[in-house]
Amino acid sequence: MAKLNMVKALNQALFQEMERDGDVLVLGEDVGVDGGVFRVTDDLQRKFGSQRVIDSPLAEAAIIGTAVGMALYGLKPVCEIQFSGFAFQCFHQIENHCARYRMRSQGRFHIPIVIRMPYGGGVRALEHHSESEEQFYAHIPGLKMVVPSGPRNARALLAAAIRDPDPVIFFEAKSLYHAAKEEVPDESEVMPIGRAQVAREGDALTLIGYGAMLRVALEAADVLRDEDGVAVEVIDLLTISPLDRETLVASVRKTGRAVVVHEAPKSFGPGAEIAASIMDGAFLSLEAPIRRVTAHDVPFVGFAREKANVPDVPRVVAAVRETLAF
Amino acid sequence: MPRIAVEPRFQVEYLSILDSDGNLDTALEPKLADNELKSLYRAMLLGRRLDERMVRLQRQGRIGTFAPTKGQEAAQMGSIFTLRPTDWMVPSFRETAAMIWRGWPIEKLLRFFAGHLEGGQPEPDQHDLPITIPVATQLPHAVGLAYAAQYRGDDVVVMAYFGDGATSEGDFHEALNFAGVWHVPVVFVCQNNQWAISVPLKKQTHSRTIAQKALAYGLPGLQVDGNDMLAVYAAAREAVDRARAGDGPTLIECVTYRLGVHTTADDPTKYRSDAEVAMWEQKDPLTRFKAYLEKRNLLAEGLEQHVDEEIAEAIRRFEATPPPDPLTMFDHVYAELPSDLAAQRDAMAASDPVVPAREGATAPTQPGATPMRGQRLTRR
Ligand SMILES: Cc1ncc(C[n+]2csc(CCOP(=O)(O)OP(=O)(O)O)c2C)c(N)n1
Ligand SMILES: [Mg+2]
């Protein structure tokens, strides 16, 4: 057991998986000598050498493109895109190839690649360093989209992503990197991709969040317990796609109400799919419309205005109260 | 069938006029008037002093992350000096000295780095694009601007800035190719500062020079001592004149060095040696150009003080920036606010939105906020 922050936990997952499987290698900008701009790949190059931990030239398209080639040959590249805002430079490789090779080759090839990216706000950063873009990947058939919410599940989900035979987009909330430490057992753990978790049980309403927004959801649930005396059930999605509809529907069948929180803009975001899935599975249990608390439908607003854009506890509490009062 | 040389003429030149020991090639020395030399030096000095001041502002939490210019003042000023106000400047994110020369008020740039989007708004009469952060993505824009100017028959040259790392991106190659095919008036200025964050040039490209990459696209490429103001100026003068005369694009590689951190979130002790930095400090463009002016008796008394006062006044204006109105985040999404977005705005107005304390100007980094990596003082 050791208390680790998310950076250390992710670093450990990479270390353990590289020890376990010689086909796993790390590729990206500044991942070697520098250990990644957030230090997630710290020390890996020293341990595994520059053939396995590769400081690439500055070209996202070629990072993912060459990783596709490596994957076609049987390796398991774990790519780092320095910030999710720069993944549009390799979006064609992800959409055109990572997501489709299994289908195109009718199962002859598959792309067991992991693409890690720091995402999200809360770190006083400039444009392209604060956005949340999970909706783009969640929308692409053939990809899996994972967003951990803390050190321990981050380590276990990254291990699962590396062992997964399909391409996994792995989003790491920057604001969680150093936010909290958690007890993490020494031996490696693997959590199933595609399963949500009930982070807190309750019966009044289902509050759904993921990544950095899980903490906001939990704090909102605290406020509602203390001030309103209601027990909100909080679900940590962990995987956006494939979506764990079963867990969502089971919860709402019990509570009858739901609020979804995410940092990505509202329209056509994960909240819409989650709401539609709940409607499909728990329509007759619903007592109120499903509400979404999200960023507004605007591009990057600058960090001086960020707090007014990204969901915070008061906004979530207000949305829950309105839903309860409906 | 024979194997014959199809293109035996590839040649890349290196231009140096004033070296770090003060040796001057008088045959190549550009003819700059005294007042031009003085204003060039003043702009370099302003860039340097502001840079140092901004690092302190960042450490105090008064602005956010930014990319310092230190060491690249000659590469920037020698090139931008050749543009007219009616020409276009296309910056990346490290061109503070050149942007100020182009008329960006210091306080506006500070607002930008304090997270206020207002700081990225060029004046209506300015022919300047705002800072672009995704590496190399601005280069096709420069080619498009130049095409459009040519299409309209305007007397316009476009100058675009980028780093050595940027030359690995597809956008760089695509922009050069288009520029060559369209034969447009654009000057590509690469500030080869030897590093792209932690990646040294030799891991960035297997080419001997960056300048030679132009040759593959059918345009001239020239390498210059980027810490030599005179050489950068001479190279840029030639390229801008060619572009203006309708003779097409040029790539200039300024061989320079980033003396400071990559950004204020970076710790260069992780990846480069003090000895290397010390070696480049010997080639500091500012001291070299200062010595040149000194010899010609062109150094004004009290210049440093004047420059510092200008900076201090700008910081005072920056600190007087009112807290941002969150509702204005809807102002520039579309020409006309769609009704759905208007509803989001109304909901925000009704909910008493969070008006953050003056993040940029006075608020220290909030406790609890995750620092970007390495937001601690480093030795450089
Ligand atoms: C497309 C893209 N990928 C990654 C980054 C992150 N990043 C910012 S600057 C930088 C290095 C740039 O190196 P170079 O082009 O040499 O310019 P310099 O920073 O040295 O001025 C990187 C990787 C980015 N801004 N854009
Ligand atoms: Mg560079």
Question: What's the total helix number of chain A?
Answer: 12
At CATH level 2, the architecture of the largest domain in chain B is 3-Layer(aba) Sandwich
Question: Which small compounds were modeled alongside the protein?
Answer: thiamine diphosphate, magnesium ion
- The portion of residues assigned to helices of chain A is 25-40%
Oligomer: heterodimer
Structural Rg of chain A? 19 Å
CATH architecture verdict of the largest domain in chain A: 3-Layer(aba) Sandwich
Poorly predicted ranges of chain B: 359-380
Describe this structure in words.
The complex is a heterodimer of chains A (326) and B (380). Chain A is α/β, with parallel strands linked by helices. Chain A folds into two domains: 2-184, Thiamin diphosphate (ThDP)-binding fold, Pyr/PP domains (Rossmann fold), CATH 3.40.50.970; 197-325, Rossmann fold, CATH 3.40.50. Helices cover 37% and strands 20% of the residues of chain A. Chain A has helices at 6-20, 44-48, 60-73, 91-98, 101-104, 134-138, 151-163, 213-228, 245-255, 270-282, 306-309, 313-325, and strands at 2-4, 24-28, 53-55, 76-80, 114-119, 144-146, 168-173, 182-184, 197-200, 205-209, 232-236, 239-241, 258-265, 291-295. In chain A, the strands form three sheets. Chain A has a seven-stranded mixed β-sheet with strand order 3-2-4-5-7-6-12, with helices on both faces. A five-stranded mixed β-sheet of chain A has the order 9-11-10-13-14, sandwiched between helices. In chain A, helix 1 (6-20) packs parallel to helix 7 (151-163), helix 3 runs parallel beside helix 4 (91-98) and helix 8 crosses helix 12. The radius of gyration of chain A is 19 Å and the shape is globular. Chain B has 380 residues and is an alpha/beta fold. Chain B folds into two domains: 13-319, Thiamin diphosphate (ThDP)-binding fold, Pyr/PP domains (Rossmann fold, 3-Layer(aba) Sandwich); 325-380, no CATH class. Chain B contains 13 helices and eight strands. Chain B has a six-stranded parallel β-sheet, sandwiched between helices. In chain B, helix 1 (34-59) crosses helix 2 and helix 4 packs across helix 12 (303-319). Mean pLDDT of chain B is 93; it is low at 359-380. The interface between A and B is large, with 52 and 54 residues. The structure holds thiamine diphosphate and magnesium ion (MG). Residues 163-165, 193, 195-196 of chain B line the site of magnesium ion.
